[in-house]
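Here is an idea for our session: we take a single protein and study its fold together. Start from the sequence, derive the C-alpha cells from it, and show both lines together. Once you have written the record down, we can walk along the chain together:
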Amino acid sequence: MFNIEEELKKLPASPGVYIMHDDKDAIIYVGKAISLKNRVRQYFQSSRNKSAKIESMVSHIARFEYIITDSEMEALVLECNLIKEHRPKYNTMLVDDKTYPYIKVTVAENYPRVLFTRMAKKDKSRYFGPYTSAQAVKDTIELLRKMYKIRTCNKSIKEGENNDRPCLYYHMKQCDAPCNHYISKEEYGENIKKVIEFLNGNYTDTLKNLTEKMQKASDEMNYEEAIVYRDLINSVKAIAQKQKITDSNNLENRDVLALATEGEDGIMQVFFIRDGKLIGREHFHMNIPVGESNAQTIVSFIKQFYAGTPFIPKELMLQEEIQEQEILEEWLTAKRGQRVHIRVPKKGTKERMVELAKRNAALVLAQDKERIKREEGRTIGAMKEISDLLGLEHINRVEAFDISNISGYNSVGSMIVYEKGKPKNSDYRKFKIKSVEGPDDYASMEEVLTRRFLHGMEEKKEMAAKQLGEELGSFTKFPDLIMMDGGKGQVHIAEKVLDKLHLNIPVCGMVKDDNHRTRGLYFHDVELPIDTHSEGFKLITRIQDEAHRFAIEFHRSLRSKTQVQSILDDIEGIGEKRRKALLRRFKSVENIKEATLEELAGTESMNQKSAETVYRFFHKEV
C-alpha cells in the first residue's frame, strides 16, 4: 500500500521529474522541479491558493514516483518526453501532433539531390523550411528538378565509375545523367548553387535565366520548348508571390506565437518567419485545464511543440511574459546549437505582428468552435454513447479484432485500435495464424487474442524491471473494451481467453443482420439494440468496417507475395538471392517478364547464364 505521507518524507532535494498516478495506475500528471522535495510536497499541503486544476488533480492521486536528474535542464527534457509519451490528463495538451515538411539539399554528396523530408537532422545537408504545405514543397522540388536538371535517383555516384545506361529522366531532358558523367561535377555544382539561391528567396536570377531561354526558343521557332519555359516562369512567379516580406531590414528567423482561449479550448497561432519572410502560419488546438493562466499554457505549448520540431528559430515572440523564460531559452539554445531569445515586443512592427497573430487565433477559435463540437460528438461523444449503452463508467481505448482467410488459406488476424473515438494507426497489429489449419475462425481468434495479451503481459513485466521513461511496447497498453466482429460465439472465445489469463476486460460483439449491416451490440449474453441514427452507432460501424478492411488488406498482400514467390520458384537455378535481386530491380513479375535479356543480365547477382534461364522461362514460345 502506497503511503503518501511516508513517501513525501523520502523525497530528495534534487532536480528531477515527478509522475502522478491515479487509482488505476494511469499517469495523470508529469512535472519538473528544481527541488523535488519542495515541489511535490506543495501539492499535498493545505492552501487556499490552489487552482481548481490542482485541487482536482490532487484528489485523484493514488501514488507518485520521481526520477532525479543532474540539472533542471535535464529535468525539462525528460518532462517533455514523458508528456509526449503518456499525454497525462492534467497536463495542458497540444491536440495537434504535426510534423512539418522541409526541403533537403544533400550538399555533402558528389552530385547533390533535392529531397522532401519531415525531419531535419544534424548532418552535412542544407535544410529549408519548415513549410506548412506538403503539396507546395513537392511542387517546388519538382520545379527545381526540372529547371536545373537535378537527379532524382539515390545512386552512389563515384568518380570514374559509370552506372547502368541513363534512365528515363535523361531521355526526357529532366536530368543530365551525372551517373554516367555526362555533366561535370563543377557544372552540376553550379546548378545546385542556383537551387540554394532560389530556396533562399532569390528568384530574380532564375526568372531572368528562364526568360532568356524562352525568348531564344521562340526566336528559333521551337515553340514547344518555349511553352515549357513559359510554364516554369509562371510556376516561379506563383511561388514568389506566396512570400510576404514582413521586415526587409531584419532577415532573421523567428516564430510569432499568440494564444486565444475560451473555457477549456485554446488556439495557438504561429507565424513562421524565415529570412524576414512570412512563409506560412499554422494554428494548434489546445486542451486547457480549468484555472490555468495564458502564460502557463504558452509554456506548455513551447515545450511540446519545439520538443518535436527539428527547426528552432533564432527568436520567439510572445504576447506576454512567462515564468520559465530563462530555462526555456537555455533548452532551445541547446537544441538549436545557437543562441535563442524569447521576447515580448512592446511597440513597433514586432508588437503589431504579435497582435495580428492574436487576432487570427481568436478568429480561428470562433470559427472552429462549432466544428470542434461536431468532431467531439463523432468521437468522444460517440464513445460515451457506447459506454452508456453498455453501462460502463469510462471507455477511452477500444481494440477490435477480425479474421480473414479463403477456405482456411493464409489465415490472418487483425487488431485495430481506437482512442477517444479516433483510429490510432500506430497501434494496429497483424497476426499470421500459426496453430490453426483450415477455416476455423473461432480457433484462429483464440490464437490471436492469446498472443496479443500474453505479449502485453510479458512487456509489462519487462518494463517493471526498467527505469520509467523508456518507450513502452506496443502491446503494453490494454483496452477498456474489446469489440469482436461477430456475436455470441466470438464474444465467448474472447471471454475464454481473458479468463485463462486472469484479465478483467469487458467484451462486446458487433452484430450484423442478414444483409451484413450492423444492427447492435452483444454484451453479457444480451443483444442490445442501438439507435441507427446516433453517433455511437456510426462509430461502431466505422470500427467494424476498419477491422474488416485491415484484415482483408493484410490477407491480400500475403496472397500476392505467395503468388509472386511461387512463379519465381518454378525457375530452375534461380535461388532466393537472385529472386530478391530481380524483384528489387523490376518490382513485379510482369516487369521481369517484359525485361530484355540485357536488362536481366545487368541485374545484381545475375550472370549471362541465369539471365538466359529467366528469359527462356517467360518466353517459352520463342
Q: What stands out?
A: The first helix runs from residue 4 to 9.
